[in-house]
Structures are given as C-alpha cells and as structure tokens.
Design a protein that fits this description.
The protein is of the alpha/beta class. It has 3 domains: 168 residues, 3-Layer(aba) Sandwich (Molybdenum Cofactor Biosythetic Enzyme, Chain A); 74 residues, Alpha-Beta Plaits, CATH 3.30.70; 166 residues, Alpha-Beta Complex (Maf protein). The chain is built from 14 helices and 17 strands. The longest helix has 34 residues. 40% of the residues are buried.
C-alpha cells in the first residue's frame, strides 16, 4: 500500500456522542497517526447501536485504506462492535479458545471466577488476528482484507493506549503503513494566540514540500504540529531545523518540544537547583496544586498548597493580614503577593505562587468585573503581582487562571534564573 493512504477512525459510545465524556480517543489516535506521517481523513462518533455501527463502518471501509475503531468490545449488551462489523464484512464469528484462556487467566490472577458475560468476548471475525490485552478482558482485533486494514481496539484508555503502542504500531510498520522513523514534531507555546502564532512563524513553512502544519489551541496554550506525510520528502532532521527556527522566533512564548505541561517545565527548572515550591489559591480551588501533583517525583519540588477560598482561610492558612483584606479586598495585588509569600513561609518553600480573583458568574464590581484575576509570585530575588482579565464562563476562567499562573512562573524562572542561583548561593542554601 503506497502513501498517502486514507485513514478513518470510528469511536463508539453514547457517552461520547452526547458529550458526557470528552473524546480523548480521537486526541490520542490523531497524535499517534501524525507521529507516523499520517493525517486522519475523518473521525466518526457513533451510537452503541448495531444498525448504526454496520452502516457507518461500511461507508468508512469502502472509502478508506485503514479503519480504526475504539470501543464496543466489552462483555455487556451494548458492546456490539464485534458482531456488527463481522456482519458488515460478511464474516462468521468464531469462538477462540485462546481468548477464553487469556480472560480466565486474568480473572484467576484477581482471585475471581470468569463471569458468564465475558464469554461474549471470546468470539472474533474469522479473518481476525487477536491483539493481546494485558490490562483488560477485551482483545484487540486486526484484519487485513480486500487490500485494506481494520483495527478494532478496546475503549478504556488504560487498555487501548498500550495495545496501540506495543502491538498495532509494530504491526503497521511491518505492513509498510508506518515508517520506521518519526515524521512528526510538536511545538508547545503559551501566551500567544493561534492567529498571532501563525503570523509570527508562518513564513518559515513557505515552499516546504511535504510539510503539513497544524494548530491546536487549548486553555491559553497553542500547539504547533509539524509533520511530513512522507518521511522521504522531509526527513526528521529537516523537520527539526524548521522547528528550531520556530523556537528562535517565538522566544519566551516557546514552552517546549513535545507535550510537556507547564507544571512539568517548572519542575524541570527547579529540580536541578534543589529548589521548592508552594502555592496558595482561591478561585482556582486546588487546580493549581493538581497540575503539580500529576507529575511523578514532584515531592522533590512541591511542598504543598492551600485553598484559601474564604477570607478567613487566607488569614488562617497563609497569614494574609486582616487589615490588608479590609483595605484592598481579597482580589488585589497586595493580597496576591501576601498569599504567595505566606505559602512560602508556611510550607518552607523557596518559591510561592498564588491566584485570587472572580471566576464568575457572580461577584466582581464595576472596577473589577467577573474574570478579574490577580497572580502573585514570590522568589529568592523578589515578589511580583500581575492582573489578567478573563472573559469565559466559570469553568473556563478557572482553567485559564491556573494556566496563566503557571506560564507566568515559567517566564519568571527563565528571566531571573541566574540571579536566583547567585542569591541562593549567597544565602548558603545552594552550592554552585
């Protein structure tokens, strides 16, 4: 099969179609395909209904070279992918004792008998190759038919992701669908909008044959994706040269290559210096702390956080003076700084980061409307406050406030890193 090929993904589940749960499957598969030089042509989100599965799969199968489905391989009555696709392909479902053995072994390891419902998962279309699932009971299925490829994957991410990376990618490489080299680079940016980013770096992509450029905006950040649909047109080295040129132009707006979070970037800055961090937050209600606690090994850097939602909590938890709250109000530069310095003192940390503001939909005033957020930052070389104005709903404002605080700290660390190292050395807290 020669490139370019047409790839479509089908994600099954009423919860995805109804918006009850975000379609993380599409995000993951899109990224994985892009890494291997393939741009998905379409993604279908469909109901757990046999007639719909059969109808939409047939349409995708007829116009595509590779179809990937997720979900509907479980043991319950609404798991209908296996049966519906077998019917669409005119294939018999056969009972596979190797699948039964794997499922029995999994339940045995858990000290449980195999439920009757799980026997449904032991059937596969007659031409299907079984993909092992070490983290669940639903095997993946790999079919080559009519010069096309079908891959059926389980829905849970903890099962689907390792199956795709350990079984599907090597199999597609053997079939010549995926190249052996990476054909994808991602540049993560913050503090710059999508249109401004495109205007700033767009000229670097002119005349670059085989280059595919994509932009993805999310919660105060924009990811720039560079890929080659054919690794022989633009090599990994050539992509890296273009990416380096982008980095140089972006300056402080550049966060990293890849998909590291802002919190991870901060962690990587502080860990080699043996420096520590604490946070105090009101309107973000713990979001800021959660960004850090998602990182493995963060205890080496993150000492703790305080959610100081009520004014009394600001006084009791991080020693904000009552007089300051009365004079300036809880949403102010002065209180933001006091929260940051108070977090440092209470948790014995070198750096403090704080957020206070009106997330909405109520609160605020004519002077400080809903969306007014103050950030506070305390470091070995000084303290700062910053005001930002957000215009989203409550959930959006909270997410963006946390992102803005993290990005601001990232920029401060970059700007003052050398000064902070020398300040730490002079105080005897760090050995140069």
């Amino acid at each position: 099969m020669s490139a370019p090929i047409r790839v479509e993904t089908i994600t099954l589940g009423d919860e995805l179609l109804l918006g009850i749960r975000e379609n993380d499957h599409l995000t993951y598969l899109g990224s994985q395909l892009a890494h291997h030089g393939i741009e998905p042509a379409a993604n279908l989100v469909i109901r757990d209904l046999a007639s719909d599965i059969e109808l939409f799969f047939e349409a995708s199968w007829n116009r595509s070279d590779l179809v990937i489905t997720t979900g509907g391989l479980g043991p319950t009555s609404d798991d209908l992918t296996r049966e519906s696709i077998a019917k669409a392909l005119n294939e018999e479902l056969i009972y596979d004792v190797s699948i039964e053995s794997a499922i029995r072994e999994r339940f045995s390891n858990l000290g449980l008998p195999m439920p009757e419902s799980n026997f449904r998962q032991c059937y596969r279309p007659s031409s299907a190759e079984v993909l092992d699932n070490p983290y669940g009971t639903a095997p993946g299925l790999f079919i080559i038919k009519e010069g096309k490829i079908l891959i059926m994957l389980p829905g849970p991410a903890r099962e689907m992701h390792p199956m795709f990376e350990k079984s599907v990618i090597p199999r597609l490489q053997r079939e010549g669908i995926f190249p052996e080299v990476d054909c994808y680079l991602q540049i993560r940016t913050a503090g710059i909008g999508e249109s401004a980013l495109a205007e700033k770096v767009g000229h670097l992509f002119e005349g670059k044959k085989g280059l595919v450029v994509g932009y993805c905006a999310h919660a105060g950040m924009v990811d720039l994706r560079l890929s080659s649909l054919d690794g022989e047109i633009l090599s990994e080295k050539e992509l890296q040269i273009i990416a380096d040129d982008c980095r140089n132009l972006l300056d402080e707006d550049f966060v990293c290559f890849g998909d590291r979070t802002l919190a991870e970037v901060i962690f990587r800055e502080l860990r080699p210096l043996e420096k520590t961090l604490a946070v105090a937050e009101s309107c973000t209600g713990g979001l800021l702390s959660s960004h850090f606690t998602e990182i493995e090994g963060i205890s080496k850097v993150f000492h703790g956080g305080a959610v100081c939602y009520h004014n009394d909590a600001k006084v009791q938890l991080v020693d904000v003076p009552e007089s300051m709250l009365e004079q300036h109000g809880a949403v102010s530069e002065e209180v933001a700084i006091a929260m940051a310095t108070g977090a440092c003192e209470k948790f014995g940390a070198d750096y403090g980061l704080s957020v206070t503001g009106f997330a909405g939909p109520t609160g605020g005033s004519q002077v400080l409307p809903v969306g007014s957020i103050f950030l506070g930052y305390a470091s070995p070389v000084g303290v700062w406050a910053k005001k930002i104005q957000l215009r989203g709903d409550r959930a959006s404002n909270r997410r963006r406030a946390a992102t803005a605080a993290l990005d601001w700290m990232r920029r401060k660390l970059r700007k003052y890193k050398l000064e902070e190292v020398f300040a730490a050395a002079e105080s005897g807290n760090f050995n140069i």
